Protein backbone atom coordinates (compact mmCIF):
# COMPACT_ATOMS: atom_id res chain seq x y z
CA UNK A 1 0.00 0.00 0.00
CA UNK A 2 1.30 3.44 -0.87
CA UNK A 3 -0.17 6.75 0.21
CA UNK A 4 0.54 9.98 -1.64
CA UNK A 5 1.30 12.61 0.99
CA UNK A 6 0.34 16.07 -0.24
CA UNK A 7 2.85 18.89 0.05
CA UNK A 8 1.31 21.98 1.62
CA UNK A 9 2.94 25.36 1.05
CA UNK A 10 2.41 28.58 2.95
CA UNK A 11 4.12 31.94 2.61
CA UNK A 12 7.05 30.90 4.81
CA UNK A 13 6.73 27.15 5.30
CA UNK A 14 6.51 23.84 3.49
CA UNK A 15 4.61 20.95 5.10
CA UNK A 16 5.86 17.68 3.67
CA UNK A 17 6.24 13.97 4.36
CA UNK A 18 8.58 12.73 7.07
CA UNK A 19 12.05 11.91 5.72
CA UNK A 20 15.13 10.12 7.00
CA UNK A 21 17.16 13.34 6.80
CA UNK A 22 14.87 14.88 9.44
CA UNK A 23 16.22 12.54 12.11
CA UNK A 24 18.95 14.84 13.45
CA UNK A 25 16.60 17.83 13.82
CA UNK A 26 14.07 15.58 15.56
CA UNK A 27 16.78 14.23 17.89
CA UNK A 28 17.77 17.77 18.87
CA UNK A 29 14.14 18.61 19.68
CA UNK A 30 13.45 15.37 21.56
CA UNK A 31 16.57 15.91 23.71
CA UNK A 32 15.12 19.17 25.09
CA UNK A 33 13.12 19.26 28.33
CA UNK A 34 10.19 20.96 26.57
CA UNK A 35 9.69 17.81 24.46
CA UNK A 36 8.06 16.33 27.58
CA UNK A 37 4.72 17.43 26.15
CA UNK A 38 5.17 15.04 23.21
CA UNK A 39 6.77 12.06 24.92
CA UNK A 40 10.35 13.28 25.43
CA UNK A 41 13.07 13.65 26.30
CA UNK A 42 14.12 10.42 24.60
CA UNK A 43 17.22 8.96 22.98
CA UNK A 44 18.04 8.65 19.27
CA UNK A 45 16.67 5.11 18.89
CA UNK A 46 13.33 6.21 20.35
CA UNK A 47 13.26 9.23 18.01
CA UNK A 48 13.92 6.83 15.12
CA UNK A 49 10.85 4.83 16.14
CA UNK A 50 8.88 8.09 16.40
CA UNK A 51 9.89 8.96 12.83
CA UNK A 52 8.82 5.49 11.66
CA UNK A 53 5.55 5.73 13.59
CA UNK A 54 4.81 9.04 11.86
CA UNK A 55 5.45 7.52 8.43
CA UNK A 56 3.41 4.45 9.36
CA UNK A 57 0.45 6.57 10.47
CA UNK A 58 0.19 7.87 6.91
CA UNK A 59 0.14 4.29 5.59
CA UNK A 60 -2.42 2.93 8.06
CA UNK A 61 -4.74 5.93 8.52
CA UNK A 62 -4.18 7.63 5.16
CA UNK A 63 -3.21 10.90 6.86
CA UNK A 64 -0.71 12.03 9.45
CA UNK A 65 1.96 14.44 10.59
CA UNK A 66 3.70 16.72 8.15
CA UNK A 67 7.21 17.86 8.88
CA UNK A 68 7.35 21.65 8.81
CA UNK A 69 10.22 23.12 6.82
CA UNK A 70 11.37 26.74 6.94
CA UNK A 71 11.45 27.95 3.32
CA UNK A 72 14.38 30.32 3.85
CA UNK A 73 16.77 27.94 5.60
CA UNK A 74 15.43 24.56 4.43
CA UNK A 75 15.59 23.38 8.04
CA UNK A 76 12.96 21.26 9.73
CA UNK A 77 11.34 23.55 12.28
CA UNK A 78 8.55 21.36 13.68
CA UNK A 79 5.64 19.12 12.84
CA UNK A 80 1.89 19.37 12.56
CA UNK A 81 -1.08 17.47 11.22
CA UNK A 82 -3.94 15.14 12.06
CA UNK A 83 -3.23 12.12 14.25
CA UNK A 84 -5.52 9.38 15.43
CA UNK A 85 -3.58 6.87 17.48
CA UNK A 86 -5.47 3.85 18.75
CA UNK A 87 -5.61 5.43 22.24
CA UNK A 88 -6.97 8.79 21.03
CA UNK A 89 -10.67 9.59 21.53
CA UNK A 90 -10.88 11.02 17.97
CA UNK A 91 -8.62 12.66 15.36
CA UNK A 92 -6.35 15.35 16.77
CA UNK A 93 -4.65 18.34 15.20
CA UNK A 94 -1.15 17.99 16.64
CA UNK A 95 1.54 20.66 16.42
CA UNK A 96 4.97 21.49 17.74
CA UNK A 97 7.57 24.05 16.67
CA UNK A 98 11.21 23.63 17.61
CA UNK A 99 12.62 26.07 20.16
CA UNK A 100 14.92 27.97 17.80
CA UNK A 101 11.95 28.77 15.52
CA UNK A 102 9.56 29.99 18.22
CA UNK A 103 8.23 33.54 18.24
CA UNK A 104 7.83 33.83 14.47
CA UNK A 105 4.20 32.73 14.15
CA UNK A 106 5.23 29.46 12.51
CA UNK A 107 3.10 27.30 14.82
CA UNK A 108 -0.07 29.19 13.90
CA UNK A 109 0.80 29.30 10.19
CA UNK A 110 1.63 25.59 10.05
CA UNK A 111 -1.30 24.37 12.19
CA UNK A 112 -3.79 26.52 10.25
CA UNK A 113 -2.54 25.11 6.95
CA UNK A 114 -2.57 21.55 8.31
CA UNK A 115 -6.11 21.90 9.64
CA UNK A 116 -7.37 23.23 6.29
CA UNK A 117 -5.52 20.47 4.40
CA UNK A 118 -6.93 17.80 6.73
CA UNK A 119 -10.43 18.92 5.79
CA UNK A 120 -9.70 19.38 2.09
CA UNK A 121 -7.70 16.20 1.46
CA UNK A 122 -9.01 13.77 4.07
CA UNK A 123 -12.49 14.98 5.06
CA UNK A 124 -11.37 15.64 8.65
CA UNK A 125 -13.59 18.62 9.35
CA UNK A 126 -13.90 18.16 13.15
CA UNK A 127 -10.61 17.94 15.00
CA UNK A 128 -9.56 18.21 18.61
CA UNK A 129 -6.22 19.06 20.16
CA UNK A 130 -5.02 17.13 23.19
CA UNK A 131 -3.24 19.62 25.44
CA UNK A 132 -1.20 18.80 28.52
CA UNK A 133 -2.60 20.95 31.36
CA UNK A 134 0.89 22.40 31.89
CA UNK A 135 1.52 23.32 28.26
CA UNK A 136 0.57 26.99 28.16
CA UNK A 137 1.94 27.51 24.63
CA UNK A 138 -0.15 24.68 23.20
CA UNK A 139 -3.27 25.92 24.96
CA UNK A 140 -2.67 29.47 23.68
CA UNK A 141 -2.25 28.20 20.12
CA UNK A 142 -5.40 26.06 20.32
CA UNK A 143 -7.34 29.13 21.44
CA UNK A 144 -5.77 31.31 18.73
CA UNK A 145 -6.86 28.69 16.19
CA UNK A 146 -10.43 29.10 17.45
CA UNK A 147 -10.58 25.88 19.48
CA UNK A 148 -12.52 25.87 22.74
CA UNK A 149 -11.96 23.83 25.88
CA UNK A 150 -14.41 20.93 25.87
CA UNK A 151 -13.39 18.48 28.56
CA UNK A 152 -10.66 16.81 30.56
CA UNK A 153 -9.94 13.16 29.79
CA UNK A 154 -7.39 10.48 30.59
CA UNK A 155 -5.42 9.64 27.44
CA UNK A 156 -2.72 7.00 27.65
CA UNK A 157 -2.68 7.28 31.43
CA UNK A 158 -2.28 11.07 31.52
CA UNK A 159 -4.72 13.90 31.96
CA UNK A 160 -5.34 15.80 28.73
CA UNK A 161 -7.40 18.89 28.13
CA UNK A 162 -9.43 18.43 24.98
CA UNK A 163 -9.88 21.52 22.83
CA UNK A 164 -12.46 21.34 20.02
CA UNK A 165 -11.58 23.12 16.79
CA UNK A 166 -14.33 24.81 14.81
CA UNK A 167 -15.76 22.70 12.02
CA UNK A 168 -14.19 23.43 8.66
CA UNK A 169 -16.20 23.11 5.48
CA UNK A 170 -14.31 22.27 2.31
CA UNK A 171 -10.88 23.01 3.72
CA UNK A 172 -11.32 26.68 4.59
CA UNK A 173 -9.03 27.68 7.45
Task: Give a short summary of the structure.
30% of the residues lie in helices and 25% in strands.
The outline comes out as globular
- Rg calc: 15 Å
Q: What CATH first level of the domain at 8-124 would be assigned?
A: Alpha Beta
Give the low-pLDDT segments.
Answer: none
Number of distinct helices: 4
Count all strands and give the number: 8
Compressed to H and E, one letter per element, the order equals EEHHEEEHEHEE
- Order of strands side by side in the largest beta sheet? 1-2-3-4-5
Superfamily (CATH H level) name of the domain at 8-124: Gcn5-related N-acetyltransferase (GNAT)
> So, CATH architecture of the domain at 8-124?
3-Layer(aba) Sandwich
Proportion of residues in β-strands: 25-35%
What characterizes the major β-sheet? 5 strands, antiparallel
The fold-level CATH name of the domain at 8-124 is: Aminopeptidase
Percent of residues in helices:
25-40%
Task: State the secondary-structure class.
Answer: alpha+beta
Question: Distance between termini?
Answer: 30 Å
Rounded mean pLDDT score? 92
